[in-house]
């Protein structure tokens, strides 16, 4: 296919029949995501005609859907977000901690996304801040950037939280910077046990308050005894809290954040084939020495798995805590820099490998450059929205 295979191609080709076969079983939000992805950068959303001011090349540019689940609509938001984060980086090591919940919790989260995902954020953040504030470990207020992922490599439902944390924090009296030990942040075994306790306490509170709902094969969990039987063994199991090796420097921090923050369940670049209503994509199976694998799913199963990861409306999947919390971030970062005796670096973002100051970047998207000569594409006027047309993909 010109431009490569996309999730949108699968949705357009097999989506209508699959939606009809599962009528009443898809949420309004899932249907909205499917519709947005199918119409993204097509005549259905309208657009404008462009002409190169240098060579006269003309083309039509259709509007984006701007849905946060669309694989094609994350680049601009990611660039701006990274520019903001780069301005906040401190000259200290950064650590990466991952919080994962057991499969039984994932099953509860499947029908209670907003409630359980919020518990995941609050329990992980409280765990990190509590252990870090303990003088036996660090004795400081830390800052945390937390990013929710709900998927595994095979698109199954696997909620977990990625946390990026500066290696140190502010002393309780705010008079000095407390650095962590070289190459070591906080003990993961201690983090795991406190995270488990806090999470289960909050989950039980949510159940007692009637905030958890259960349907279909999980309807029996609405009974207190059945719910207790499910979660009681979890208090005795080890929960996975994984601390990865510290980042090598600010560039690695930004590169990581750029890959992980504005991501969807699967990118178009991982798709390799769509034939006979079957989708093949690349994935990594870390149980093997060579984790690179190809997986083939029926198109309907592929769409089902993709839609498992549609977030509740208005849900924030990137959150900040500690001295990076939104309410006082600027003041607390200024204090950190004074204590570290450093000046803030000019914010830059990287576009195609070239860094340039954020305040000097053109307001227009780089895709407005002429593909023939590199000149500036000038708008010739708007194109109104067009009725959607069926554009079957040749899968022969």
Provide an overview of this structure:
- By secondary structure, the chain is of the alpha+beta class.
- It has a domain at 88-265 and 308-345.
- Helix content is 33%, strand content 22%.
- The longest helix is centred in the first third of the chain and has 21 residues, at 113-133.
- Residues 349-366 and 390-396 have low confidence and may be disordered.
Which stretches of 5+ consecutive residues score pLDDT under 50?
Answer: 349-366, 390-396
Quick one: biggest sheet?
5 strands, antiparallel
Question: Which percent range describes the beta-strand content?
Answer: 15-25%
The helicity comes to 25-40%
Count helical runs. 10
**SS elements, strand count:** 15
Q: What Rg do the Cα atoms give?
A: 24 Å
- Report strand order across the widest sheet: 8-3-5-4-12
Looking at the chains present, what oligomeric state does this protein adopt?
Answer: single chain
Shape: globular
Mean pLDDT: 88
Termini gap: 12 Å
Classification by helices and strands: alpha+beta
Q: Write the element-wise H/E pattern from the N-terminal end onward.
A: HHEEHEHHEEEEHHEHEEEHEHEEE
Please specify the SSE layout and strand pairing.
Blueprint: H1 7-21, H2 28-39, E1 47-52, E2 58-62, H3 75-86, E3 94-100, H4 103-111, H5 113-133, E4 143-151, E5 157-166, E6 168-170, E7 177-179, H6 188-208, H7 224-231, E8 241-244, H8 250-260, E9 271-275, E10 278-284, E11 292-298, H9 299-307, E12 318-322, H10 329-340, E13 348-351, E14 354-357, E15 377-383
Antiparallel strand pairs: 1-2, 1-15, 3-5, 3-8, 4-5, 4-12, 6-7, 9-10, 10-11, 13-14
Helix pairs in contact: 1-2, 3-8, 4-5, 5-6
